[in-house]
Design brief:
Blueprint lengths: L12 E6 L10 H7 L4 E5 L8 H7 L4 E5 L19 E7 L2 H10 L1 H4 L3 E2 L22 H12 L9 H15 L1 H8 L1 H4 L10
Parallel strand pairs: 1-2, 1-4, 3-4, 3-5
Helix pairs in contact: 1-5
EC number: 2.5.1.25
Family: Belongs to the TDD superfamily. DTWD2 family.
Protein name: tRNA-uridine aminocarboxypropyltransferase
Length: 198
C-alpha cells in the first residue's frame, strides 16, 4: 500500500486534528491523507494545549483558515481564486462523529473558525465502517472532495488509491463471505454503507 501513496502538491495547507483513539486504528484514513500531501500536518490531540504552536497558526490572521465540519453556519468551500489573497489552511477533525464533536467542543479556537461543508449526496467508498449519519465520508474522502472544490484545476484522486487498496486488503483478509455477511449494505439496512464516523 505504501507504494500507492502519492506526494501531491497543493496550495491549501491541510491540518488534520486526530483523536488519540484513532491513532492506532487499522483503518486510519486521516494518516493516509496527510501522508499523500506535501503540505499537510497531523496533530494527535483531544484538547489543544494553550501553548500549542497549532493554536497560534490557526489564529494567525495572515492565513485564511477554515474548518471542514457540517453545521448551520457551514457553507460550501469556494475556489481559491475567489477573493481572499491570504494563504489558505483547511482543518479537518479525524475521529468518530462523537469524538470529533468533543474535539470541537473542547477547543474554542476551532469553534470560531469559518466553517465549510461538503454538498449532500456524496457516497462513501469506505465499505468497512458503518454510520447512521447521512452522507458521512471517511477523513481522506472528505479531504479529497474539499480540495477538489477549493482547487478545481488540480486532480487529487490519486490520494484515494491507497485508501481503496486498504479496503480491498481488509476485505480479502476477512474473506468475501465474512464481508458480505457482516458488511453488506442489505444486511446493514442501508442502500449504501457509509463509514468513518458514528
Amino acid at each position: 500500500m505504501c507504494a500507492l501513496i502519492p506526494t501531491l502538491q497543493c496550495a491549501t495547507r491541510i491540518l488534520v486534528i486526530q483523536h488519540p483513539q484513532e491513532q492506532k486504528h487499522a483503518l486510519n484514513t486521516g494518516r493516509l491523507l496527510v501522508a499523500g500531501l506535501a503540505h499537510a500536518d497531523l496533530l494527535v490531540a483531544e484538547q489543544l494545549p494553550p501553548d500549542s504552536p497549532v493554536l497560534q497558526q490557526i489564529s494567525d490572521p495572515a492565513w485564511f483558515t477554515e474548518l471542514l465540519f457540517p453545521g448551520e453556519r457551514a457553507q460550501l468551500p469556494v475556489p481559491a481564486q475567489s477573493g481572499d489573497e491570504r494563504p489558505r489552511r483547511l482543518v479537518l477533525i479525524d475521529g468518530t462523529w462523537r469524538k470529533a464533536r468533543k474535539i470541537l467542543m473542547l477547543n474554542p479556537v476551532l469553534q470560531n473558525l469559518p466553517r465549510v461543508c461538503l454538498p449532500g449526496g456524496l457516497v462513501s467508498r469506505y465499505r468497512l465502517r458503518k454510520t447512521r449519519v447521512p452522507d458521512a465520508l471517511s477523513t481522506i474522502e472528505a479531504g479529497v472532495h474539499a480540495l477538489q472544490m477549493i482547487e478545481p484545476d488540480r486532480d487529487y484522486s490519486a490520494l484515494l488509491h491507497p485508501f481503496e487498496a486498504l479496503i480491498e486488503g481488509q476485505i480479502e483478509a476477512m474473506g468475501v463471505e465474512c464481508y458480505e455477511r457482516n458488511h453488506s449494505p442489505l444486511v446493514c439496512g442501508y442502500v449504501n454503507s457509509r463509514p468513518a464516523k458514528d
